Amino acid sequence: MVSSGDVDRLFLQAILSRGVMSSQLAQVIWGKCIKAVNESNDALNVRHSKEKDAWEGFVSKINKSLDKLDLEFRALHDESSGKEIKGDEIAQLATEYTPAEITFFKAIVEQIMLAPREAYVISDMAALREPALVGLTSMTKMQAEVILTSFVQKGWLLRSKAGHYSLSTRSLLELLPYLKSNYPDEILECTICLDIMTRGIACHTVNCKTRLHFHCFANYRRRHDTCPSCSTAWPRGAKDKPLLPVGEGAYAGDGRRRTRTITPSDEEDTEEEPEQPSQDPPPPKKAARGNVKKEQRREADMEVDNEEDEEDIQQAPTQATQRPRRSTRR
């Protein structure tokens, strides 16, 4: 029997089959789901509204259902166009890639996130070298090139005219928990919208942390002419100097490969190792042996008979070795 709850089910099925879409398309699908349910049961009259509050209420209802699965249907603005994109985290599980190809993709993501000067790109030549550097020796450069093309075609990566790969809106949307967990120090957030950003502009003032998407800069600059953090005067255009680029414009191409630094937990483990020598036998025994030698010298100087000297030497170590044992028991 068709019920009003089938609207939610139809909508989620449509989202899962697409993964990522514009907010406008998501609202159209929502309306079509309502229409399909109403036509299947004349007794139902599920209302559809194009008002923003109605759409946000529906999204909140969907997320309440997904929360039980630790998932979320969320939105993110495209960094280039500023267009709002909707997506579901489940889509990242519906991958057609092999474990080796996923390892390759993770290596590409790491080099993009660790790129210096907030460039967030990797060159095509560096990307083709990654399989050999991460142990995928059976993957040829030709195969790697085919896989990279697949990543671009399926919306996981972007490739610029200059031959640089960067993360797409789909990757930023669906892999956000992974990126925040593995690269917390490399994550940049837009000062205006607070979303993750890998391309845009940075304030040129030393130590100023202001970063803005291109579309956020355009909207902000219409009403303000200074930095929102340090109040430094800004030029009119996002690509005008002295503003600094974030993304491909900051790429310098030094050719160096970056890797993540040691985590704090690893440092703690290395600090604990030097404590092991404390298990060695206690040092008082060495002091006792030194006392024995001193007694031997004193007895030799006093010209005591050989028999008495041997008795003293045998008794002294016995007494000296017993003392440390008593102290260790205490």
From TrEMBL:
GO cellular component: nucleus; Smc5-Smc6 complex
EC number: 2.3.2.27
Biased composition (Acidic residues): 265-275, 302-313
PROSITE patterns: ZF_RING_2
Major location (coarse): nucleus
Cell division in keyword set: no
Class in the EC hierarchy, top level: transferase
InterPro entries per the UniProt record, alphabetical: Nse1, Nse1_RING_C4HC3-type, WH-like_DNA-bd_sf, Znf_RING, Znf_RING/FYVE/PHD
Extent of Basic and acidic residues compositional bias: 292-301
Gene3D superfamilies associated with the record: 3.90.1150.220, Winged helix-like DNA-binding domain superfamily/Winged helix DNA-binding domain (1.10.10.10), Zinc/RING finger domain, C3HC4 (zinc finger) (3.30.40.10)
GO biological process: double-strand break repair via homologous recombination
Location of the region described as Disordered in the Swiss-Prot/TrEMBL record: 238-330
The keyword Zinc-finger belongs to this UniProt entry's keyword annotation: yes
Subcellular location(s) per record: Nucleus
Catalysed reactions, as listed in the record: S-ubiquitinyl-[E2 ubiquitin-conjugating enzyme]-L-cysteine + [acceptor protein]-L-lysine = [E2 ubiquitin-conjugating enzyme]-L-cysteine + N(6)-ubiquitinyl-[acceptor protein]-L-lysine
RING-type domain location: 190-231
SUPFAM superfamilies (alphabetical): RING/U-box (SSF57850)
A GO MF label: ubiquitin protein ligase activity
Keywords of this entry: DNA damage, DNA recombination, DNA repair, Metal-binding, Nucleus, Transferase, Ubl conjugation pathway, Zinc, Zinc-finger
Pfam family, one: zf-RING-like
Subunit structure as annotated in this protein's UniProt entry: Component of the Smc5-Smc6 complex.
Family the entry assigns: Belongs to the NSE1 family.
Function of the molecule: Acts in a DNA repair pathway for removal of UV-induced DNA damage that is distinct from classical nucleotide excision repair and in repair of ionizing radiation damage. Functions in homologous recombination repair of DNA double strand breaks and in recovery of stalled replication forks.
Protein name: Non-structural maintenance of chromosomes element 1 homolog
Originating organism: Psilocybe cyanescens
